[in-house]
Design a protein that fits this description.
- The chain is mainly alpha-helical.
- It has a single domain, classed as Winged helix-like DNA-binding domain superfamily/Winged helix DNA-binding domain (Arc Repressor Mutant, subunit A, Orthogonal Bundle).
- It has 5 helices and 2 strands, in the order ααααββα.
- It has a two-stranded antiparallel sheet.
- α2 crosses α5.
- It is globular, with a radius of gyration of 14 Å.
- The termini are far apart.
């Protein structure tokens, strides 16, 4: 039960939600997330590390110049993000 609560706390953190739901669009570029959602570099780093630890996100290095590090949702991460998006839609539609 404690482990479940820890996982829910990490996923439900605002910037973790942003990263997960944005990941439904495809590759996650750090600069794009930081610009769109005003996420600081330390905050992004901490949240992406937690999501990687939970096996919701993977880090990839682009094979061509400029050799950026990008992130993608794992299949588990995609499922979680899809559910989060549905919850958001429910909350927005039923006021």
């Amino acid at each position: 039960m404690k482990q479940d609560i820890r996982i829910l706390n990490e996923i439900s953190e605002k910037h973790s939600l942003v990263i997960l739901v944005h990941g439904l669009e495809g590759i996650i570029y750090v600069t794009r997330i930081r610009e769109l959602y005003k996420v600081g570099s330390n905050t992004f780093s901490k949240r992406k590390s937690e999501l990687i630890e939970l096996n919701l996100l993977i880090e990839k290095k682009e094979p061509e110049f400029p050799f950026r590090i990008v992130y993608e949702l794992t299949s588990k991460g995609r499922k979680v993000a899809e559910h989060l998006k549905l919850i958001h839609e429910i909350m927005e539609s039923e006021s």
